[in-house]
Amino acid sequence: MSVRHASSPVRFARWAVAASLVVILGAVAWVLCVRRARPRPAAPETAAPAAARIDRKEGIQHLEYKDGRVWADVRADRFFLGGDAMNHLEGRAEIWDYEGPEGRRIRILADSVVYDPAMIHFTIAGHVRITSGDLRFESDSFDYDKSLRMFRTTRGGVVTSDRLSGSGREFSYAEDAHELRISGGVRFEVRDESRPSGAVQFSGDRLIYLRKEKRGRIEGRGRVQSGSGDGSANLLGFELSPDERYLLSATLEGEARCGSRGEGRGYNLEAGSIRILTFPRSSGISSLEALKDCRISLSDASGPGADIRSGAARLTFDRAGRLAGWLASGGAAMDAEEKGGGPRQFEGEEISWTDEPRMLGVRGAPGGDARLDSADSRIEAPSIRLDGEEGNVRAAGGVRGLMKPRSGGAALGFFPRDSSLFIACKEMTSSEEGRRVLFEGNARIWQGERSLQAGSIEVFEKTEEIMGRGGVTAGLLHSRPRAAADERVEVAAEAMDYSPQDRTIVFHGQGSVVMPEARLAAKTIFVALREDKRAIQGLRAEGEVTVSEGDWEGRSDKAVYDPDADTVVLTGRPSLVEKGKGTSRGDKLTFHLGDGRILIENKGQGRSISIVKS
Fold first, then answer.
1. CA nearest 525: which of 547, 510, 503?
2. Is 56 helix (H, G, I), strand (E, B) or coil?
3. Distance (Å, rounded) from C-alpha 70 to C-alpha 400?
4. Does residue 190 surpass a pLDDT of 70?
5. How is the chain split into domains, by residue range?
6. Helix (H, G, I), strand (E, B) or coil at 53
7. Which comes out higher in pLDDT, residue 501 or 271?
8. Vertex 326, ends 325 and 332: CA angle to 5°?
């Protein structure tokens, strides 16, 4: 039998297969040996909690990418995936969200952050500090819903920016709408670096602030404080400047009130609504505008205060915060006190006050009058002004007045003050110094049958002097023995003066006296009054005197009327002219008004009396 040898390639393949089998068998034997050598762990008595089975990672930093760029950066001391399928960050947790609205970055710092794998819902706790744009939030707890772009907390906290700060028990901030909501003990502050008094502070139950519009609203016990002034209302709205540096305006609705908290001159304004306006580029209050059932209470450490009621009101201030003036309109009434004490009441369509100059003005409605009522007098006119420095009063546009009765006080000229005294003129000016009153423009004063009318009448209450100018007519009373009642005597002249020392009225310039039975004319007429000033005690005329009775006219240089004797006696070369007849002369000419007799006396050697008319 012969032996055949394989070729070289066949022999090489056999050797390769054999070597491979040896390697495989060796590997299998090594694995079996290792498994037998490693001890199998003992099974626990109970299954471990899910969180215990989670692998914790220390000092992590995780970046989230979208469209090739980083949109979130997550860092923490510890990280784990909880059994709630939520990501947990612990210990100096920090999240940067680069997908904030309008390109803003949002930074979250806290002790603990729990969020879902999609990074939509976040629960943030422990020393929370969140930055969104220029706003910074601080609290013990926040919830963040990224789908709504909204932060919320019910644990109380603070929000701040370079210009604003706010605090309260509950917060929410919607990033897309730039809407901040705070409730529960709200405090909101606008820091104004332009003013020494500092910030404008708001408070209330609930706040809504829209940063895009720079408008806010506070509901429930709303209050605003600025400098020494503060205001409150059920609803308080406000508007800030575009850079949020200043308060532009605020509106108080429902039981609205504004007042000053400083010493000295103060004010308190109450109304249905009040609007606060500020100076340009400042939170300093320039004015307050009020509507519906307005009431202003004024106080002044240097003097008496006042209370004003009106349908509308406006208060103005200087840049130092001092009240500079006010206007009450829509039917206004004011109660105040005079300098010397006693009440004063003002009424009109509007009442106004200016500090420079110190002036009070009262204006009536169109076709109506303003009114000033005091313990002594009442004045009605379309316009009344009171000088706050001197206490002078000016009424214009057609004045009607009443001097009220008073006992034991000074008379108004020759008019007693124990009964009412009425006044009418176009304009009236009262000077506090010297108690001087000037009535101008067809001025008239009357008291029963007694009266005085002139172009202007000037009265000095302190001295009881009285003067009339521009054509004067006085209605006086005289008592005659046989008259049943006092009769009216009318005296007219270009001017008159009354001297209280001798109770004499002097009429100047072409004067005349009209009595029931006769008429007297002269250049100057002196009328003496009885002690009670109610009737004429006597009358004297001088200069070109004429006395007319029927067809008879007496002429002389002087004449005297005696009410008790009921005679007019002419002296100083008297003459008597009978109308259409001759002239008689003598040394004394007497008109007996009671019985109509006219007597001429001659005082020569052959003294005689002629009865011209029996």
1. 510
2. coil
3. 87
4. yes
5. 55-190, 539-613
6. helix
7. 271
8. 150
More confident residue, 15 or 151: 151
Beta strands in 365-449 (DSSP E): 370-374, 377-381, 383-387, 393-403, 421-431, 436-447
Supply the pLDDT for residue 339: 66
* Lowest model confidence (mean pLDDT) among 286-290, 408-412, 441-445: 408-412
Q: How far apart are the first and last CA of the chain?
A: 218
| β-bridge mates for residue 608, sequence order | 602
Residue 289 in tokens:
């505008």
Residue 375 has pLDDT above 90, yes or no: no
Q: What are phi and psi of 290, to 5 degrees?
A: -125, 150
Indicate if 539-613 has the same CATH topology as 55-190: yes
The model's pTM: 0.77
E strand or H helix that includes residue 244: none
In contact, 551 and 566? CB cutoff 8 Å: no
Question: Which residues, including other chains, have CB under 8 Å from residue 464's CB and lie 6 or more apart?
Answer: 410, 411, 412, 413, 498, 500
DSSP state of 586: -
CA count, 13 A, side-chain hemisphere, 108: 34
User: Beta strands 164-168 and 383-387: pairing type?
Assistant: unpaired
**Residue 179 burial (C-beta neighbours within 10 Å; 0-12, 13-18, 19+):** middle
Distance CA 522, CA 538 (A): 15
DSSP for residue 434: G
CA distance 59 to 369: 86
The hierarchical CATH code for the domain 539-613 is 2.60.450.10
Name the residue among 609, 553, 560, 607 with its Cα closest to residue 583: 553
- Which CATH superfamily, name and number, covers 55-190? Lipopolysaccharide (LPS) transport protein A like domain (2.60.450.10)
Residues for the chain: how many in total? 614
Instruction: List the beta bridge partners of residue 327.
Output: 314, 352
250-259 confidence digits (pLDDT tens): 999 999 999 9
- b/e map 209-222, b = 16+ CB within 10 Å: bebeebebbbbeeb
pLDDT of residue 263 exceeding 70, the answer is: no
For residue 20, the surrounding DSSP H or E stretch is helix 8-37
Which residue in 405, 410, 406, 418 sits closest to 437, CA to CA? 410
The answer to whether the CB of 113 falls within 8 A of the CB of 95 is yes
